[in-house]
Specification:
globular, single chain, mainly alpha
């Protein structure tokens, strides 16, 4: 049960952060981006916690960029191409694949993975339980 709650918290944190980043960047978002962001953060955190001392930051960022780009491609194929919700369209951006992912944004995801890894490391190193103050 503790693991389920922990994973749910990671998902909610990532989903909220992704949604807020989209609001700041594009001035709009979609509820499905909460799901994509939650899945990305949870996956990157779980990978990072296993690779914490085995890979350097640039390797983790490369993996994180791959995770985010993959999730974005799958979500894009579902919400944009299959359901026709037209949430985003990268078809005018160079080096795009079906208008759902593109190289420039994959490079941005590489950079976005840096703070994700630092937050993930903070979560991993946080061993002090929350204390109630009465």
């Amino acid at each position: 049960m503790k693991k389920i709650l922990s994973q749910s918290g990671l998902f909610a944190l990532g989903g909220t952060a992704y949604y807020l980043i989209e609001l700041a960047w594009r001035q709009s978002s979609h509820w499905s981006m909460f799901l994509a962001g939650g899945l990305c953060f949870q996956t990157i955190h779980n990978i990072n916690s296993r690779l914490r001392d085995k890979k350097c930051i640039w390797e983790k960022c490369l993996i994180g960029s791959g995770v985010i780009t993959s999730v974005e491609f799958v979500f894009g194929c579902v919400v944009n191409l299959s359901l026709h919700w037209n949430i985003w369209d990268y078809s005018r951006v160079p080096f795009n694949l079906l208008g759902q992912i593109c190289l420039p944004f994959s490079m941005m995801w590489y950079l976005l993975t840096i703070p994700i890894i630092f937050v993930s490391d903070s979560i991993c190193h946080s061993t002090t339980p929350l204390r109630r103050s009465y």
